[in-house]
């Protein structure tokens, strides 16, 4: 079943419900719509699966009910430059769950949608389990991402009416881009909304978070998930893998399961692929939601 839901800001998002109608529900905001042709080929250059959303849904729907939508894609089409705050995003997620008659749910998010999962967990008691991929629950790089997003917004504003000829899209992944040479040309509203998100997280202390110990929690990242940004992006390093590894023991003492995904080139992009993620999250969901 699919339907279009109108959110508080009057934007409309396509949402689907698949799988076992009476099963445990997993909210999947990373379910990007499949793309084909040249757009698909461009995504493949960056190591992105152009049918990842479909693969995620199909991979989980045999055992669970999946509430799926592409929240990032929605916000790129319908930017919310001044109000994309943690409160607003959580309100959107709960509004979608309510509209689809889903009371209790688990959540899987990757990268910035993983940190959204943590914000969701501290704002609702409806969560049954939480998986954060590609963003650590402890000592998250909020300040570094603030620098990156502010620099991206400032570049976008400067380059709004300037032709950009950099051929950086031919790089196979963000980790292999020469970030000193990249220039950004994108809708300033698209970039500003993420700056707004991180601005509202500058005072957030994830070490002060106390989650319900009865809620199972998993955090994972690829072992090569480290991006060194050039001066154009603030000259910062976002070391997801390093942070997660350093805090693994502390997280486990807090009730988190932690997985560092090994493999050739297991960077931020590769560790988000369905063929990488599903063998990790599906058995974990089964063990924590269905077994016993």
Automatic annotation (TrEMBL):
Superkingdom of this protein's organism:
Bacteria
Q: What is the lineage of its organism?
A: Bacteria, Bacillati, Bacillota, Bacilli, Bacillales
Q: Write down what this protein is called.
A: Alpha/beta hydrolase
């Amino acid at each position: 079943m699919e339907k279009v839901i109108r959110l508080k800001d009057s934007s409309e998002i396509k949402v689907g419900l698949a799988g076992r109608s009476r099963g445990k529900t997993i909210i999947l905001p990373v379910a990007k719509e499949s793309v084909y042709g040249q757009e698909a080929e461009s995504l493949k250059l960056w190591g992105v699966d152009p049918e990842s959303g479909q693969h995620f849904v199909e991979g989980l729907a045999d055992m669970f009910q999946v509430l799926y939508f592409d929240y990032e894609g929605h916000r790129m089409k319908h930017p919310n430059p001044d109000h994309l705050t943690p409160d607003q995003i959580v309100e959107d997620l709960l509004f979608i769950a309510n509209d689809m008659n889903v009371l209790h749910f688990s959540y899987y998010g990757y990268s910035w949608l993983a940190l959204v999962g943590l914000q969701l967990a501290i704002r609702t008691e409806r969560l049954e389990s939480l998986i954060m991929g590609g963003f650590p629950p402890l000592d998250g790089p909020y300040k570094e991402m603030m620098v990156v997003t502010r620099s991206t917004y400032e570049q976008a504003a400067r380059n709004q009416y300037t032709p950009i000829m950099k051929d950086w899209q031919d790089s196979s992944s963000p980790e292999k881009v020469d970030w000193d040479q990249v220039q950004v040309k994108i809708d300033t509203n698209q970039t500003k909304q993420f700056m707004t998100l991180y601005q509202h997280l500058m005072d957030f202390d994830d070490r002060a978070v106390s989650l319900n110990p009865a809620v199972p929690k998993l955090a994972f990242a690829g072992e090569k998930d480290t991006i060194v940004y050039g001066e154009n992006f603030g000259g910062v390093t976002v070391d997801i893998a390093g942070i997660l590894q350093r805090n693994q023991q502390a997280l486990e003492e807090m009730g988190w399961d932690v997985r560092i995904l090994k493999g050739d080139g297991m960077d931020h992009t590769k560790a988000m692929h369905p063929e990488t993620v599903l063998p990790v999250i599906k058995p974990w969901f089964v063990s924590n939601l269905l077994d016993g």
